[in-house]
Design goal:
The protein is mainly β and 169 residues long. The protein has a single domain (3-167), classed as Jelly Rolls. It has no helices and 16 strands. The radius of gyration is 17 Å and the shape is globular. The chain starts with a strand and ends with a strand. Residues 1-6 have low confidence and may be disordered.
């Protein structure tokens, strides 16, 4: 389905969009590298999309140049470890290079605790550009947490990450 947006600047424009998610717990594998590396958020499900795709499980690829809003939410957890908080850093990269001034820190509480990171980036993209979301923690017990459906009462899954991308101009 193509959505037509009445844009006073560009006239009528076929809007590009996509909604994606991942239904796996994503562990902090980068901390085991020497030297430690950042983890890239991956996506295993495309809910629907037009002009936006996920390439190589992580690259948010834009087919048509324009201004896009990249929004995500991710639930982090600590699978174990010592009491206290663990810090996670999350940032955006464009075409393999970290985008300046996009990093943010989030604290995950003690073992079993959860923290939600959810924000958006407004980006200017050319046709063929790709974006990735990276995260890092020095705590090996931090993970992007997934939960399957729950019962009594019935509740849906909790994806480790949900991503929406919308063309705004």
């Amino acid at each position: 389905m193509t959505v037509i947006v009445n844009n006073p600047v560009a006239g009528n424009l076929a809007a590009n969009y996509g909604m994606f998610q991942d239904n796996n717990t994503q562990t902090n594998v980068g901390i085991g590298e020497d030297p430690p590396e950042a983890n890239v958020m991956t996506f295993d499900t495309t809910d629907f999309a037009n002009g936006i795709s996920i390439v190589s499980n992580s690259r948010i690829t834009i087919a048509t140049g324009g201004i896009y809003n990249i929004q995500f939410s991710s639930q982090f957890s600590r699978a174990g470890g010592v009491p206290g908080f663990s810090t996670i850093e999350i940032w955006l990269a464009k075409n393999g290079t970290a985008v300046p001034e996009t990093n943010t820190e989030v604290n995950v509480p003690q073992s079993g605790g959860k923290a939600v990171a959810a924000w958006n980036f407004l980006v200017e993209s050319n046709s063929g550009d790709y974006y990735e979301l990276y995260w890092y923690s020095s705590d090996a017990d931090v993970e992007m947490w997934y939960r399957d459906v729950a019962t009594n009462p019935a509740r849906p899954e909790i994806p480790s990450v949900i991503l929406t991308v919308s063309q705004v101009a």
